[in-house]
Specification:
Chain lengths: 288, 374
């Protein structure tokens, strides 16, 4: 983060240089780009805060004259239950897949055996498959387990299909742990589990933060499994929101408020822990 | 590293459940899907949800139906749409992401804030993004009303409901077009191999290209997939969805490129400057070549996302808008709304093949390189 400026001016003692035309252009471009990203947010809030009668296409862009906070409570009564479903789903699925991923990553990076990399590559393929290609057997399988329509079927699916990415992140994380540390521990007589419990797990907290944030976001935002494996009582918020927004009769303040509610948890995680979010993002792009 | 055999057994035991789960849920289910796609399960609605459905093996008939059947024009349009969508989505994300990263690399004030702004859509679900943009792109609202803010007339572009298409081609020409495109790619491969002095590769690629071109010119024109011409093209209704997708995902490419730019050692830039490279020359000869691998991995990740994207389309244009539909959405509807499981499985398998074309070479090259270095 502390690279020096690639300018022709020698690094002067003054912390800021005078604004040159190039820098003005740079800020102009930044503001323009920021507008592209933020204008939808403005419209989102402006619409959510309007009363249904005040929503007219011609005045889309106007900020509401009177703020109508009722949209949020109305939206909550429609999708609040689904939000709670999502919380349960995301928390349980995230913790389970993080724990499994940590153990897998440890076994794959610190107890390498022949073919470990091939095995891992085969596993990683599961991260990229379009879930449409496994959806019908998955649906049948969950149904045959008697888990269709229950949140546990959805949890199972998310844990299994989350394994590749959690294993990947932990494997890369543990790759930076020096092997000498493990060797020293083995010489001291520690075995597989002692090393995990006393050496690996305690230093895994940053890894867990990355994985948990990443998985939580993924599970919370997922739609295909949510639409296929659940019924009305167990549907997560993404599905409920799509139904709320797809209805023709509903006035727009409601889906907008619903979108804000549905986005809030992951958005908060991102704003509070953005650094770890980005790390998960970069890890997801498979750098070895 | 040497470990006791007991520890090794433990490490296998720890991995075993995950391996079994992935084997069943990924490979087993894929095999099962492929099998289902070759049956007639659900083609007879009465049998679809029966407790003990009569399922017959019918080979590749479902695939034939999808590519040449009278009723499956929607699917063919979707295949074309998904190719255009992927192309423009990747171009948009790479272009915008690179631009933003290059600007942020020049250390503007409040860099963290800018980054937060550009990346936040990543944390949203496609359903939320779709809901927001559906409102932005209402025919008489949102973006179309924007000119009135500056005293202009509202625009009238039918963002998600346009039925116009450009770059139309006849579906019957598909074999010709596909073969020609692959042949051109092979020619490029051959030329590159010739440059790097790999004679065997040059020869193989050149021969394959020649065979394909010959086939395209001699055989393909006589192939008739459909009895009548069926035009497909780039539906303009997709533009809005592409914009929303770029809005959501370009922060990702920005983060990738920024990480790449920050990883370029300062000495390299200094050295380029000493060698007399100007700003532009440095980007062209030093920085962009170093970013090429990042572009490639971004293309892979974005490509597979875009081939399977459907929730964004579902939320923005609804499930029944043929002009914006994509195969991933069709698969869901065919299987779980119409209960035509075999046909749905066939669409899912085609999607998998498309994604595998992108992913498998990438994974193999990544891991071959790694095993080589280990």
């Amino acid at each position: 983060m502390t690279t020096t400026l690639p300018t022709k001016v020698a690094p002067a003692a003054t912390p800021r240089k005078p604004l040159r035309p190039g820098r003005v252009l740079m800020y102009a471009l930044l503001v323009l780009a920021a507008l592209f990203f933020l204008v939808p947010v403005y419209l989102l809030f402006a619409t959510a805060l309007k009363s249904p009668e005040a929503i007219e296409l011609a005045t889309t862009w106007h900020w509401p004259t009177t703020l109508n906070w009722a949209s949020f409570s109305d939206a909550w009564t429609k999708i609040g239950g689904n939000m709670l479903n999502s919380v349960f789903l995301a928390v349980v699925a995230t913790l389970l897949s993080a724990l499994l991923g940590s153990l897998n990553g440890y076994a794959l990076s610190k107890w390498k055996f022949r073919g470990a990399n091939t095995l891992f590559a085969l596993m990683l393929f599961g991260m990229f498959i379009p879930y449409q290609a496994v959806l019908i057997p998955l649906f049948q399988f969950i149904k045959s387990l008697g888990l269709y329509g229950s949140i546990w079927g959805l949890i199972l699916a998310h844990v299994v299909y989350g394994l590749p990415i959690t294993t990947l992140i932990f494997r890369n994380f543990y790759a930076d742990v020096p092997d000498a540390l493990i060797e020293a521990a083995t010489i001291d007589g520690a075995g597989f589990w002692q090393i995990y419990g006393r050496v690996i797990f305690p230093i895994s907290i940053p890894g867990f933060v990355v994985v948990i944030i990443w998985q939580f976001t993924q599970v919370w935002n997922e739609f295909l499994f949510a639409a296929t494996l659940t019924n009305t009582s167990s549907q997560p918020v993404t599905y409920a929101l799509s139904q709320l927004a797809g209805g023709q009769a509903v006035s727009w303040n409601l889906p907008m408020a619903g979108a804000i509610l549905a986005a809030l948890p992951t958005l908060l995680v991102y704003i509070l822990l953005g650094r770890y979010f980005v790390r998960g993002l970069l890890a997801g792009s498979v750098k070895g | 590293m040497k470990g006791l055999s007991k520890d090794r057994l433990w490490s296998m035991a720890v991995l075993a459940p995950s391996i079994i789960l992935v084997a069943v849920f990924v490979y087993g289910f894929i095999a099962r899907s492929v099998y289902v796609s070759m049956t007639d399960w659900g083609n007879d609605p009465a049998q679809a949800l029966a407790l003990d459905p009569v399922i017959r093996f019918i080979g590749l008939a479902n695939y034939q139906e999808l590519f040449t059947g009278f009723l499956q024009g929607r699917f063919r349009q979707e295949l074309v749409s998904t190719v255009f969508f992927t192309l423009f989505f990747i171009l948009g994300c790479l272009g915008l992401g690179l631009g933003l990263a290059l600007i942020l690399d020049r250390n503007p004030r409040g860099e963290g804030l800018w980054r937060t702004i550009f990346l936040f859509p990543m944390s949203l679900s496609f359903i939320v993004t779709g809901t927001i943009w559906r409102w932005m792109l209402q025919p008489q609202g949102g973006v179309n009303q924007a000119p009135t803010l500056f005293g202009g007339q509202p625009a009238t572009f039918p963002w998600l409901s346009s039925t116009d298409a450009i770059w139309k081609f006849d579906w019957n020409k598909l074999p010709l077009i596909t073969a020609s495109v692959v042949a051109v790619v092979l020619i490029v491969v051959a030329a590159r191999a010739a440059q790097s002095g790999d004679r065997r590769r040059t020869l193989v690629a050149a021969v394959c290209a020649a065979l394909l071109l010959g086939w395209a010119l001699l055989v393909a024109p006589n192939l008739k997939l459909l009895p009548a011409p069926e035009p497909h093209g780039f539906n303009l209704a997709l533009i809005g969805i592409i914009i929303a997708a770029v809005w959501q995902m370009s922060g990702y490419t920005m983060a990738l490129y920024l990480a790449g730019l920050r990883g370029i050692p300062e000495e390299l830039r200094e050295a380029a400057k000493v060698d007399g490279a100007g700003d532009l020359g440095m980007y062209r000869h030093v920085i962009f070549p170093l970013l090429a691998p990042i572009s490639l991995s971004a293309m892979i990740v974005l490509g597979h996302i875009s081939l399977k994207i459907f929730d964004l389309v579902y939320a923005m244009a609804g499930p029944d808008n043929i002009n914006t539909s994509v195969p991933a959405l069709n698969m869901y509807l065919t299987s779980f709304r119409q209960n035509q499981f075999a046909l749905g499985a066939a669409i899912g398998t085609i999607l998998l093949i498309l994604v595998a074309f992108v992913i498998v070479p990438y994974l193999t090259s990544q891991f071959r390189a790694e095993e080589g270095h280990a």
